[in-house]
């Protein structure tokens, strides 16, 4: 017997919005390379440019600041490597790459690669116990030899624990020292108020599949005056910083999803916060010693909530996240131990470790991420089983955690 | 029953899981990540710990339509199997890491966790049979793995399933192909999974460093050569001794004994390797206790081969195994597995760790 699936892993990927599916399916029936000069090409170009304008309008950017990519990983790599290469070429003293300790691996590993191969010096910015980069931390790092800094990258909202960073203040701080700031906002767009120009960020990553759009379609918002060295060379389709024939149907699907998600964000954020608070209180009622990781979610950061409204990240003492995940999966509840990993092996989360958690706590944690399809029934499904699941995982956890003969 | 299928990514465990599903059990596949630094691809036919192997196991689970997870047992494996392996060699013993892995990981750490999570049994692709609680040799004599399972207690055996022990390996491969499992023609894994190079001496050398000592003639006590550490030697070894001068009688020399404290390796002629009596400690009895204080059986001292009829005396401190005919290449640290001969396939009575040979 397979119970109805309770999908609570929207931070990993979201179900596509029917409107986005319909728009893409329609576009897939048409031929046309957006770079071609004939009628079919012009039609595709018009679709792409309309999509660009719709996205720009939704996130407070100019159309020329929208660079289409294949998603979050490409946008992060393009921003981190591209900014480093361009700034380092302009002034070889610029080798320092300041990156928060809680970044996604698409930023962390890109920066680490620059360190290994391109002479960069990676410096991780500490976060506080809630997982937030404090502006004074950035200021202190910048103040040491600011002329040696190539770029700063701090994510808008953390994918694991949901803590929101004060991007406007961080960008202003970076600009005081003449340094550009990139922000990975894949978890924020469509949930939090994101305005590119108001934020002051020089580059911003967003991706389709985290907001009800297609996989393999994303954007790097890039300020008009920001110079960046490309990753991919070829036809120079996107502002000469990104080559490759544009995936017109995906771009249309992406624009449709961004427009709907952003338009719906205030209402959805409020609804998600209610469901999240309900889920949290029910889990804590069943498992009183569970602890919420990250910001409490009661504060305000730059006019928006201080925590992603759909994120519940908990540690369950004495449990292995692996065991919890499997037992919940058996009850049809789909969630995550954190960021998915290619090897499939749960590593203790670098985010929790950066927040000061010990390894056992990091291993015993679970993320429920709510999204546009989440209902009160989903919350109740978790509430109904979490007590027995944790109890069972705890019995198994004691065996797993003991090393020795 | 709720069955946890340990899936290495090889053909045997994939077919074992498939049979378990077909038998009507509620099966969940788990791949054990045993290496702290897994390689991306399998090196030759060695090992079972690469990401490619994990992907093969995942794909087999997909085909069987069962849930699949990767569990990280790397820290435990390192502590209980790899470190144990290294320290055994450092002490002049010859360990069997597969046996140790079954004893400490698959049917201990993994089984305990499975039981705690509500499973009834752990299913593996070992070639051995379980019939009414008795562990028997596999049908396929070349593949028989009952030796490396002889350390299991009755309680462990009660929660174990070996669904392919009744089938010859070629038939297992054919069945995998029929079931659409792409691991059907994947090469067999050999040797020691955590030494992908296959060079055990180099692996041990890296971990233990140079610990020089002497190679001496067992009969005369004369030093014949120097060596870099006793971990490079195992009883019965002939090659790689580095002794230039031939023996007086012109016959090849073999390692007869290793003295880890002084670092001395004793060598001598082949017939000096003959062992007629074995002392062993820490016995594990498959039925929970020995069949009698003194009993006749078949003793086996290696994973494959090394069999002799024997009489066993079981005492409070361990066993004495008197062999009817001499065996060679018997080293402290190895397990001696004891079997009751049976026309349907010998039955494992138990095993113990060899401490001394005479």
TrEMBL record, chain B:
It is found in: Cytoplasm. Residues 202-268 form the tRNA-specific 2-thiouridylase MnmA-like central domain. The keyword RNA-binding applies. Residues 143-145 are annotated as: Interaction with tRNA. It is an enzyme of class 2 (transferase). ATP binds at residues 6-13, 32, 125. The record marks 126, 334 as: Interaction with tRNA. Keywords: ATP-binding, Cytoplasm, Disulfide bond, Nucleotide-binding, RNA-binding, Transferase, tRNA processing, tRNA-binding. Residues 276-354 form the tRNA-specific 2-thiouridylase MnmA-like C-terminal domain. It comes from the Bacteria. It catalyses: S-sulfanyl-L-cysteinyl-[protein] + uridine(34) in tRNA + AH2 + ATP = 2-thiouridine(34) in tRNA + L-cysteinyl-[protein] + A + AMP + diphosphate + H(+). One of its GO terms (molecular function) is tRNA-uridine 2-sulfurtransferase activity. CDD domains: MnmA_TRMU-like. InterPro entries: MnmA-like, MnmA-like_C, MnmA-like_central, MnmA-like_central_sf, Rossmann-like_a/b/a_fold. Coiled coil: none annotated. The keyword Disulfide bond applies. Its EC number is 2.8.1.13. Gene3D superfamilies: Adenine nucleotide alpha hydrolases-like domains, HUPs, Translation factors. Belongs to the MnmA/TRMU family. Catalyzes the 2-thiolation of uridine at the wobble position (U34) of tRNA, leading to the formation of s(2)U34. NCBIfam families: PRK00143.1, trmU. This is tRNA-specific 2-thiouridylase MnmA. It comes from Pseudonocardia aurantiaca. The gene is mnmA.
């Amino acid at each position: 017997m397979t119970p109805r699936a309770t999908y609570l892993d929207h931070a990993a990927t979201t179900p596509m919005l029917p409107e986005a599916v319909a728009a893409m399916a329609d576009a897939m029936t048409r031929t046309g390379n957006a770079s071609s000069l004939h009628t079919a090409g012009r039609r595709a170009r018009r679709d792409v440019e309309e999509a660009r304008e719709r996205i720009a309008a939704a996130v407070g950017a100019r159309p020329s600041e929208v660079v289409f990519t294949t998603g979050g990983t490409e946008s992060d790599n393009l921003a981190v490597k591209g900014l480093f290469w361009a700034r380092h070429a302009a002034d070889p003293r610029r080798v320092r790459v300041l990156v928060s300790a809680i970044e996604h691996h698409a930023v962390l590993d890109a920066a680490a690669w620059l360190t290994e191969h391109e002479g960069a010096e990676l410096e991780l910015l500490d976060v506080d116990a809630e997982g937030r980069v404090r502006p004074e931390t950035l200021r202190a790092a910048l103040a040491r030899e600011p002329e040696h800094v190539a770029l700063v990258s701090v994510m808008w909202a953390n994918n694991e624990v949901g803590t929101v960073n004060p991007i406007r203040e961080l960008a202003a701080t970076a600009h005081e020292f003449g340094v550009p700031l990139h922000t990975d906002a894949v978890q924020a767009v469509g949930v939090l108020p994101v305005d590119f120009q108001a934020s002051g960020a020089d580059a911003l990553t967003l991706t389709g599949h985290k907001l009800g759009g297609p996989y393999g379609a994303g954007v790097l918002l890039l300020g008009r005056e920001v110079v960046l060295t490309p990753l991919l060379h070829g036809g120079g389709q996107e502002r000469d910083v990104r080559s490759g024939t544009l995936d017109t149907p995906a771009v249309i699907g992406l624009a449709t999803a961004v427009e709907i998600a952003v338009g719906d964000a205030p209402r959805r954020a409020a609804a998600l916060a209610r469901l999240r608070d309900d889920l949290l209180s029910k889990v804590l009622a069943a498992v009183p010693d569970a602890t919420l990781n990250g910001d409490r979610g009661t504060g305000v950061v730059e006019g928006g909530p201080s925590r992603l409204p759909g994120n519940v990240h908990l540690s369950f003492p004495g449990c292995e996240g692996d065991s919890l995940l499997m037992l919940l999966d058996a009850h049809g509840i789909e969630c995550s131990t954190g960021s998915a990993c290619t090897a499939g092996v749960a590593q203790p989360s670098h985010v929790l470790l950066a927040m000061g958690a010990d390894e056992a706590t990091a291993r015993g944690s679970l993320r429920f991420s709510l999204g546009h399809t989440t209902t009160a029934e989903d919350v109740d499904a978790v509430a109904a089983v979490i007590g027995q699941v944790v109890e069972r995982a705890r019995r198994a956890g004691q065996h797993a955690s003991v090393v020795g003969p | 029953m709720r069955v946890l299928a340990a899936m290495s990514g090889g053909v045997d465990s994939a077919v074992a899981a498939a049979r378990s599903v077909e038998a009507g059990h509620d099966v969940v596949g788990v791949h054990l990540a045993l290496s702290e630094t897994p390689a991306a691809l399998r090196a030759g036919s060695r090992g079972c710990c690469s990401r490619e192997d994990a992907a093969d196991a995942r794909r087999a689970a997909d085909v069987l339509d069962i849930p699949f997870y990767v569990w990280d047992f790397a820290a435990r494996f390192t502590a209980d199997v790899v470190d144990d392996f290294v320290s055994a060699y450092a002490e002049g013993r010859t360990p069997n890491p597969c046996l140790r892995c079954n004893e400490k990981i698959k049917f201990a750490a993994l089984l305990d966790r499975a039981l705690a999570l509500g499973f009834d049994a752990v299913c593996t692709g070992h070639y051995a049979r379980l019939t009414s609680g008795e562990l028997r040799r596999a049908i396929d004599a070349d593949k028989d793995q009952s030796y490396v399972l002889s350390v299991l207690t009755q309680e462990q055996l009660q929660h174990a399933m070996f669904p392919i022990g009744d089938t010859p390996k070629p038939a297992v491969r054919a069945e995998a192909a029929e079931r659409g499992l792409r691991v059907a023609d994947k090469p067999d894994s050999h040797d020691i999974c955590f030494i992908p190079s296959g060079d055990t001496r180099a692996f041990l050398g890296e971990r233990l460093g140079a610990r020089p000592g002497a190679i001496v003639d067992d009969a005369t006590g004369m030093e014949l050569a120097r060596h870099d550490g006793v971990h490079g030697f195992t009883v019965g070894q002939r090659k790689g001794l580095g002794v230039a001068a031939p023996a007086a009688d012109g016959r090849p020399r073999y390692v007869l004994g290793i003295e880890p404290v002084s670092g001395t390796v004793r060598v001598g002629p082949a017939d000096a390797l003959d062992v007629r009596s074995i002392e062993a400690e820490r016995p594990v009895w498959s039925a929970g206790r020995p069949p009698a204080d003194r009993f006749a059986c078949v003793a086996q001292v290696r994973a494959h081969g090394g069999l002799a009829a024997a009489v066993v005396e079981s005492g409070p401190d361990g066993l004495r195994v008197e062999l009817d005919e001499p065996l060679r290449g018997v080293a402290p640290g190895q397990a001696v597995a004891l079997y009751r001969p049976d026309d349907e396939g010998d039955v494992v009575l138990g095993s113990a760790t060899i401490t001394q040979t005479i």
